[in-house]
Amino acid sequence: MAHDMNLYEEPFQMIRNGTKTVELRLNDEKRRKIHIGDQIFFHNSSDEYDVIRCKVINLVREDDFYRLYEHFSPVEMGYEEGEKADPADMYEYYPKEKIDEYGVLGIVIEKSDDPYLVDSHMHLEYGPLSTDYVMAFVSEAVKKGLDEIDILDHTHRFREFEACYEDLRRYEQQDVWLHQKTKFCNTLDDYRKLIAEVKQMDLPIRVKFGLEVCYTENTEDLLKDILKDTDFDFLTGAIHSVDGILYDMSFSDGLLWDQKDTGEIYRRYYEIALSLIRSGLFDRFAHPDQLKLAGRDPGYDLSDTYHRIAEALKQMDMYGENNSGIAYRYGHQDIGISDEMLKIFKEHKVKMITASDAHKPEDVGTLIREATFRARGGQE
Ligand SMILES: [Zn+2]
Ligand SMILES: [Zn+2]
Questions:
Q1: Any idea which ligand is nearest the CA of 356?
Q2: What pLDDT is stored for residue 377 in this prediction?
Q3: Which ranges in 144-249 belong to alpha helices (H)?
Q4: How far apart are the CA of 337 and the centre of ligand 1, in A?
Q5: Which of 10, 94, 252, 263 sees the fewest Cβ atoms within 10 Å?
Q6: pLDDT of residue 376
């Protein structure tokens, strides 16, 4: 069984560098489920996808922290070398009455260098909103060794968002595309009902639910209005059209790329990207440099633009996506964003998340291991 725990930066880094090997907690209902041999994922509280995977190798239960502290050295518990370990420190985190009620727990852990594997982007789009269909994605994730999957459908599945796509209907091909039976076929309530059912289930991995929101500057207010009452686990903002024209469809050459200057399309895309990030609506930015799929040369150096995008993502505390779909779905050489964008995101310490963009269960987790190692720059 796996358990998730959040940790502040300082103790988190002490576990990462191997000095802290004991985590002290209240022995409440949640912690009573922990057994020797279980896994614990420690999530950095400033970046939940910065995760250390640990194995529980021993559990020490006592009535209070005074007794518990006698079992361990200060450094093991996360104190600096030579620092005095005072059990009273724990009373800053836990009130005495809770300690009296539950008792306390020392979790002795062994760190693993295996990365936490998350596929943060997959669609139920071509199937029903049913628990069976969700479980097909979960099973594939377990088979591929993933620790978490995040399911998100496009806003064009849901009736509430239909008005946001009016601009696209000016072109016949796009209007035909919007008439497909997978578009606007459900309501957000259908989706909420599914989410509630899945969250009741005993799942082998962490599963989150969100939306991939097609963002445009013209529909920002409309989106704000629709999204203000939603409480999904996360919202991913994506740009799929530039000024009313979809850029990665079979008809996009004729409608967009052969009609407009490539540099101008790139400039507009990244202006829209900055608006998306600054809108404050989203937790994540999907496939940031997806425009490259068209295979056209923007004709200017993009590094300044990438710096501005990175600064904005950092400022808004958003995740940039490293989406492997670009490689296996479209045959692009990059497993996610380009080396240049990745380098610049790292320079600005932009938080990164890995994604497959799976549209069917068997694609879940494709190239996620590779994308994870790439996003980490081969460290660890
Ligand atoms: Zn997308
Ligand atoms: Zn997608």
A1: 2
A2: 67
A3: 172-178, 188-200, 220-227
A4: 13
A5: 10
A6: 76
Domains, the chain, ranges and CATH?
Answer: 2-112 (2.30.130.30), 118-375 (3.20.20.140)
Could you tell me the distance, in angstroms and rounded to a whole number, from the CA of residue 320 to the centre of ligand 2?
Answer: 14
Per DSSP, 214 falls in state: E
The residues of the chain scoring below 70 in pLDDT are 377-380
**pTM confidence score:** 0.94
Three-state DSSP string of 64-133: CHHHHHCCCCHHHHCCCCCCCCCHHHHHHCCCHHHHHHHCEEEEEEEEECCCCCEEEEECCCCCCCCHHH
User: Terminus-to-terminus CA distance in the chain, angstroms?
Assistant: 24
H/E element holding 134? helix 131-143
pLDDT at 379: 45
CA of 29 relative to ligand 1 center, distance in Å: 40
Residue carrying the six token digits 């998350």: 118
Residues, CB-to-ion distance under 5 Å, ligand 1: 238, 286
Whether 59 contacts 104, CB under 8 Å: no
Distance from CA of residue 97 to its chain's centroid?
A: 37
Which bound ligand lies closest to the C-alpha atom of 120?
Answer: 2
Task: Note the pLDDT tens digit of each residue in 50-85.
Answer: 999 999 999 999 999 999 999 999 999 999 999 999
- CA of residue 215 to ligand 1 center, whole Å: 10
Which residue type does 124 have? L
Ligand 1 centroid to Cα of residue 368, in Å, is 17
Distance CA 231, CA 159 (A): 17
Whole-number Å distance, alpha carbon 286 to ligand 1 midpoint, is 6
